[in-house]
Amino acid sequence: MPANPSLDRKSFSFWLPIALVVVLLVNGMVLAVGQWRLPLDAPALLRSTPGRLSLWVAEQSQNPAAEAILVQWTRPTVPNGILAEETALVRARGMLGILSLLTVGLAGYALYCLGQKRERGRTALVYLLLSYDALLLNVPPITDQPFYALVLAGILVCLAAAFLAPGHVSPQLGFFVIISVILVSWELYKQLGAVTGNQLPLTDFPWKLPHWQAIAAQLLQPARRNGPFLLIRILSEAAYVTWTAAFYGFIIGSLSGFSLGVLFAHSRLLERGLMPYVVASQTVPIIAIAPMIVAWLKPGTAPIAVISAYLAFFPVTINTLRGLLSPEAMKLDLLYSYAASRWTILFKLRIPSALPYIFSALKVASTACVVGAIVGELPSSRSDGLAAAILRASGNYASEPEKLWAVILMAAMVGILFFTLVTLVERLALRGFPLKTSE
């Protein structure tokens, strides 16, 4: 009797993810043993992200007036408050070992889920994938050491296992899966460029695509050589300055766009007369009018907020108008039959119906405001925002490309944070709101 093909396929789909996780378990053990046994003078340790950070902390701990938070946290753990380089490297090696052991533990958990709780298998593998991403940001690409290659292989095998495993992944975890794909694709492209003699586009010069570990290590290095503060602290302070101006612009632009949308919804004459100018305003390059706005309002936060508002009001205007005009004619006729005023119709029907449209526009405006704030900082000559950090990093791109990429990541994080805040407010405001405003 021939074997049942459906049972064969079921058995294969059951055992293949388990076999891949076993490979990941062995891979994690090899990484853990290798990291724990690294000599203190090994380049794989000295160039790692924890290694470089620990050496900086050891250097700063010799300065009694050092204000860095990591240095203050480290002082109580060492004699006389001074961290020796040897002790710092031992701690860095321990950090790398712990990260490797984390992959072993998560691989064991994924193996348990695939065998006992199949519906959690994919989620467990995503957590394992995140642990390998953390290793990728900490393990340097040393050619004579296998650790970097093992980390890349672990990410690829983990992605394959997550694709084959049963279960569901939340949108939040799915976001990190996409990040993992970007990270590993970036690194593999660099390796492919090296194998082909840098003949591929963007690989003819090694500095065009720095390793992600180099970018992460740059964030945890001083902003200037032997400086007292890490780059991530300087960029966080600059991001706060930019985000504050962007927030003011977001409020101004959103209120202006909402007001115009309400006016246009109640006056066809104003809509036909002013809408062409609203559309035309977005065809003017913001970088052309930014210097004029700064000259009119004087350098400071005000012109930057206005420039941010300039980019934010347009999507809010258009979507507010569309949302206010979305209620069905039957619902409007019902309110008219009760002699409802325009204000009653606006607050009882039009605005509730327009909320999904308005929040969609606000999410677009939140990211546009960050771009507007960065552009507005350029003619304002502000030295404490992200624009100034971008200019400084751009000047040294050929020698320190990691620094510019670090600034770009920080700017992206500001936009993501702004977008996330608007999304949270949307969920609170539209809790219980029907997906469709009409049947």
How many DSSP H or I helices? Answer: 17
Radius of gyration: 27 Å
| CATH architecture classification of the largest domain | Orthogonal Bundle
The tally of structural domains comes to 2
Structural class: mainly alpha
Please report the first level of CATH classification, the CATH class of the largest domain: Mainly Alpha
| Major beta-sheet overview | none
Overall 3D form:
globular
Distance between the termini: 56 Å
Number of separate strands = 0
Describe the oligomeric state of these chains in a short phrase: single chain
* CATH overall fold name of the largest domain: MetI-like fold
Q: Quote the average pLDDT.
A: 86
Structure description:
The protein has about 450 residues and is mainly α. It has two domains: about 160 residues, no CATH class; about 180 residues, MetI-like (MetI-like fold, Orthogonal Bundle), CATH 1.10.3720.10. Helix 12 packs across helix 15 and helix 13 packs antiparallel against helix 15. The longest helix is centred in the last third of the chain and has 39 residues. It is globular, with a radius of gyration of 27 Å. The N terminus is likely disordered.
Give the SSE map.
Blueprint: H1 5-36, H2 43-46, H3 49-61, H4 69-74, H5 85-116, H6 121-136, H7 147-164, H8 171-195, H9 212-219, H10 231-266, H11 268-281, H12 286-297, H13 301-324, H14 329-337, H15 342-380, H16 386-395, H17 401-429
Helix pairs in contact: 1-5, 1-7, 3-5, 3-9, 5-6, 6-7, 6-8, 7-8, 9-17, 10-11, 10-13, 10-15, 10-17, 12-13, 12-15, 13-15, 15-17, 16-17
